[in-house]
Design brief:
The complex is a heterodimer of chains A (about 100) and B (about 300). Chain A is α+β, with helices and mostly antiparallel strands and about 100 residues long. Chain A is built from three helices and six strands, in the order E-E-E-E-H-E-H-H-E. The relative contact order of chain A is 0.24. Chain B folds into two domains: about 110 residues, no CATH class; about 190 residues. The longest helix of chain B is centred in the C-terminal third of the chain and has 18 residues. In chain B, about 35% of the residues lie in helices and about 30% in strands. The radius of gyration of chain B is 19 Å and the shape is globular. In chain B, helix 1 packs across helix 2 and helix 4 packs parallel to helix 5. With about 300 residues, chain B is of the alpha+beta class. In chain B, strands 7, 8, 9, 10, 11, 15, 16 and 17 form an eight-stranded mixed β-sheet that branches. Chain B is built from ten helices and 17 strands. In chain B, a hairpin with a 2-residue loop joins strand 7 and strand 8. The two termini of chain B are about 40 Å apart. Classes of the chains: A alpha+beta (about 100), B alpha+beta (about 300). Chains A and B meet through strand 2 and strand 3 of A and helix 7 and helix 9 of B.
C-alpha cells in the first residue's frame, strides 16, 4: 500500500453507535447494515471519523492506545482491518 | 362474545358467508372459509378469543378456499386469499388450518411495521418477561409450550411485537405451533392442554397447534416491559445450561431474527439498542423440559426478588 494513501470514515451523520464494554455496534444509515466491532476496529473508525489518517499514523495511535510495539505485525493487522472497513463501505481512501 | 359461545353450526355458517371478525392481540382479522377442517380447528383453538360484531374495519381480510376447477376434486388444494390477492402457492387441502396460521403470521410480519417484530416467543411470569428469539428447529416453541403449561403467560409463540413508541411487549396470544417430536413431548407434558389434529407432510414436517391458555387470551390487553432475552437451543443429551451472553452478540442475534429490523432503518436500530440496554441476555441449552422450566422459574424468582 502506498504510504501516501490516507483513509477517512464516511459522513459521521451516517454512522450510529452503541457500545457495551469492548463491543461496539455500528449502524450505517447509508447502507442499512449493522456491524459488531471490537475495540481495535472501533478505535480506528472513531479516529477516521475525526480526521483522515495514513496507516502509519493509525499504527502509532494503536501502539499508544493499546501499549503495543509499533511493528510489522501491527501494521499488517491494521492494513487488513482498513481493507475490511473499506469493503464494508464505512471508510474510503483519499489521495 | 367468545367464539365458544357460538354453536359450531352458527360458526360454520358465519365463516362460510359474511365471515367473522376476530381480535388477536392488537389486530382485527376478518376471516372467511367454508373448509370444514378450518372451521373445526378454529372453533377448538380460538374458543377463548373474542368475536367482534361486524366491524367497519379489519387489519387483514383472509379467506381460505378451494381453487376452482378440477382441483376441487382431484388432489384437492387450498388457497390463501389476503385482501383478494393470493400471495402463496396452494397447499394440499388437509393443510388448510396450518396455512391459515402461517398466512396470518405473514400478514402481521409484512404489514405491522409500527412494531419491531422479532421471530421469537415471548412469555411472562409475575411481571418478568422473557423474549426467546431463535431460528426454526431450536426448540423455541417446545420450551414456550412447556412454560405456558406451567403457569407462564403466553404473549406470543412466533412473533414478538415490540412497540416502537413505548418499548413494550404487545401480547399476541395465538395457538403454539409444534413440530414433529415436540408434539408428543408436549402432549405428555401438558395432558390437559387442547391440541389440533396432526397435520402430516407439511414443509415443516408434521405440525400440530396447541391452544393458548385462556388467561393469556383474556390478558391480551396487558402490555409488559421487556426484562430478559434468552436464546434457547434444544440439544439432545446436553445438560441444562443458562449462560450470560454479551449485549453486542445478542444485539446481532436479535437483529438477525427480526422480520423488519432493516425495513425500519434507524428506528429499528434505536429500538433494538433500547431493548438490549434494558434486558439481561442469556443463551440457554437444554434437553430436559422439566429442568428447563425450573431454570426459568428460578430466573423469574431471582428477578422478582431483586425488583
Amino acid at each position: 500500500m502506498a504510504e501516501s494513501v490516507r483513509w477517512r470514515a464516511i459522513s459521521a451523520f451516517t454512522l450510529h453507535w452503541r457500545s457495551w464494554g469492548n463491543e461496539h455496534v455500528v449502524y450505517n444509515a447509508g447502507s442499512g447494515d449493522t456491524h459488531l466491532f471490537n475495540d481495535l476496529a472501533a478505535l480506528i473508525l472513531r479516529a477516521l471519523q475525526e480526521k483522515a489518517a495514513t496507516l502509519d499514523e493509525l499504527s502509532q495511535l494503536c501502539a499508544t492506545s493499546f501499549n503495543q510495539d509499533e511493528d510489522e505485525e501491527l501494521q499488517a493487522q491494521l492494513n487488513e482491518l482498513l481493507l475490511e472497513l473499506d469493503r464494508l463501505g464505512i471508510i474510503e481512501r483519499i489521495h | 362474545m367468545k367464539i365458544s359461545e357460538l354453536s359450531l353450526n352458527k360458526l360454520k355458517k358465519r365463516l362460510g358467508t359474511s365471515g367473522i371478525y376476530l381480535r388477536t392481540g392488537p389486530f382485527i382479522t376478518h376471516l372467511q372459509s367454508k373448509i370444514p377442517s378450518v372451521v373445526n380447528n378454529f372453533a377448538l383453538l380460538y374458543a377463548n378469543n373474542n368475536l367482534l360484531d361486524n366491524e367497519d374495519f379489519a387489519d387483514f381480510h383472509i379467506n381460505l378456499a378451494a381453487p376452482r376447477g378440477l382441483r376441487r376434486w382431484y388432489r384437492p388444494q387450498v388457497m390463501f386469499h389476503f385482501d383478494d390477492q393470493v400471495p402463496f402457492k396452494p397447499l394440499p387441502h388437509q393443510q388448510a388450518f396450518p396455512m391459515m396460521e402461517w398466512g396470518l403470521n405473514w400478514c402481521i410480519s409484512n404489514h405491522a411495521h409500527h412494531y419491531l417484530i422479532l421471530h421469537s416467543a415471548v412469555v411472562e411470569n409475575n411481571g418478568f418477561s422473557v423474549i426467546l428469539p431463535a431460528p426454526p428447529g431450536s426448540g423455541k416453541s417446545t420450551l414456550c409450550a412447556g412454560l405456558i403449561s406451567r403457569g407462564w403467560r403466553l404473549l406470543s409463540d412466533e412473533l414478538g411485537l415490540i412497540s416502537l413508541e413505548h418499548l413494550e411487549l404487545v401480547p399476541l396470544a395465538r395457538p403454539v405451533n409444534l413440530k414433529n417430536e415436540a408434539i408428543e413431548v408436549i402432549k405428555k407434558f401438558a395432558p390437559h392442554a387442547i391440541f389440533s389434529c396432526n397435520f402430516a407432510d407439511t414443509n415443516k414436517g408434521t405440525v400440530a397447534l396447541m391452544q393458548a391458555p385462556v388467561t393469556s387470551v383474556v390478558r391480551s390487553n396487558e402490555l409488559v416491559k421487556p426484562a430478559c432475552i434468552v436464546m434457547p437451543r434444544y440439544m439432545p443429551g446436553k445438560e441444562t445450561n443458562l449462560q450470560r451472553e454479551s449485549k453486542g452478540q445478542m444485539f446481532m442475534h436479535v437483529a438477525d431474527s427480526a422480520f423488519n429490523y432493516s425495513l425500519l432503518g434507524l428506528t429499528g436500530f434505536e429500538t433494538l439498542v433500547k431493548l438490549i440496554d434494558r434486558c439481561d441476555c442469556y443463551t440457554f441449552t437444554y434437553s430436559k423440559l422439566q429442568e428447563a422450566i425450573e431454570t426459568f422459574d428460578e430466573l423469574a424468582t431471582a428477578n422478582n426478588t431483586t425488583c
